[in-house]
Design brief:
single chain; 155 residues; mainly beta; four-stranded antiparallel β-sheet; 14 strands; 51% strand
Amino acid sequence: LTVCIWNANESKPLKTFRGHTSYVYSCAWSASDEFVVSGSPDKSIRVWTVRDGTCKIKLENYSTVNSVTFLSGDAHILSADNDGQLRLWDTASQNVVKELKVHEKLIRGCAVDSQQTFALTSSWDNTLCLVDLPAELHLPTVIHFIRQLCSFYSD
């Protein structure tokens, strides 16, 4: 129901963003650190202004939002949901600009590499999927996976 920014040294919240009507499954910072995006089973994606805690944007998705991240600074949001869809949202127009059906079952996790070239998704259909974001191509699923979250790691 809330997103909190915590002071880890003092174990207390610095900011609390309220507005979701269900749990928050995912959140991410914008590249500028001015905004936080959150996704929820209430089928909404919200963009919060860190400075004052207000909800700047509320996007209505079609199903539970399991993963969100900013792309292109804060110009776009990539969301992953229970329909097995990746959706690219334009924050200025607040519309979906691209939809990709990448899994037969819900997408549980989505990670984007540091160059924002690829998205790697994990699903309850027991697969990983690598998506070439600039080319908007769905690459063949080649890795068998069992219900785990994924993330990129670089040295």
